[in-house]
Amino acid sequence: MLGPGNRRVGGFLLAVAVVGASLWRLFLYVSSFVDAPHGGTNIIVFGDSLTEGIGASPGHDFVSLLSRSLGIPIINAGRSGDTTASALGRLERDVLSRDPKVVVVELAGNDSLQRYPIDETFKNLRTIIGRIHAVGGGVVLVGIRGGLLSDRYKSEYRKLVRDTKVSFVPDILGGILGDPKLMYDGIHPNDAGYVIVASRIEPVLGAVLEAE
Predict the structure, then answer these.
(1) 167: β partners
(2) How many CB atoms lie within 10 A of CB 147?
(3) What sign does the CA torsion over 190, 75, 24, 150 have?
(4) Are the C-beta atoms of residues 62 and 194 closer than 8 Å to each other?
(5) How far does Cα 73 stand from its chain's mean position?
(6) Burial of residue 57, with CB atoms counted within 10 A of its CB: 0-12 exposed, 13-18 middle, 19 or more buried
(7) How far apart, in whole angstroms, are the C-alpha atoms of residue 190 and residue 133?
(8) Of 126, 139, 149, 177, which is most buried by a Cβ count within 10 Å?
(9) Which SS3 state, helix, strand or coil, does residue 47 take?
């Protein structure tokens, strides 16, 4: 549970969240579920190069931003290049063995880039979520757009969120991807982009922590 001083959208992220959140949510599907944890100790972000912080200067990856803003330690379990399949292979070592309270799951970007079959991607995500739930952890699922011209993943995320009742942050790079002011390269945000990423995750993660 967050302490009294942390029961807010923190500091420098507040301005970004207030300015951007309303318009962003008008166009995107946002989960109404709050996936409260039932035990555990650690907050973990489990993902790929976005979680690892490729493109950010030291201390400006979104996990570090969230940790400072919420005033709580958060474990960064990101690994560049991970697909949902390779992440599933390290789930026990990097997440389940660490007594998770809440796990932010940020995966599927590399599946999309490598054109993995959609059913395999979402089967893996469902398995990851199920195994975290089995040990009492809450889940915040971070959505990735499944294509530039059309979003192959949107309906699958809807079904997955409905079935598993996880908390959900949709299309995390919406409005960031393709904006040279916010991108380090063609895939990864820069420091300014990661501030927006953190501002989108923070209120959802905060609600889960408050529901403990």
Answers:
(1) 140
(2) 11
(3) positive
(4) yes
(5) 16
(6) exposed
(7) 33
(8) 139
(9) strand
CA distances from 84 to 34, 43, 49, 120, 122 (A): 23, 20, 12, 9, 8
Query: What backbone phi and psi angles, to 5 degrees, belong to 81?
Result: 90, -10
d(CA 77, CA 66): 14
Q: Model pTM?
A: 0.86
DSSP-assigned letter for residue 16: H
Question: What is the residue extent of each domain of the chain?
Answer: 31-210
User: What pLDDT, in 10s, does the model give residues 157-206?
Assistant: 999 999 999 999 999 999 999 999 999 999 999 999 999 999 999 999 99
Alpha carbon of 169 to those of 37, 68, 125, 142: distances in Å?
17, 20, 14, 5
Nearest-CA neighbor of 70 among 4, 15, 137?
4
Kind plus residue range of the DSSP H or E element containing 109: helix 109-113
Structure token pair of residue 74: 């958060």
Q: Within its chain, how far is the Cα of 152 from the centroid? A: 19
Reported as a single tens digit per residue, the pLDDT across 180-192 is 999 999 999 999 9
What CATH architecture is 31-210?
3-Layer(aba) Sandwich (3.40)
Residue 123 class from Cβ within 10 Å (0-12 exposed, 13-18 middle, 19+ buried)? middle
The residue with tokens 């290049």 is: 81
* Dist. CA 183–CA 139, nearest whole Å: 27
Instruction: For tokens 């807010």, name the residue.
Output: 8
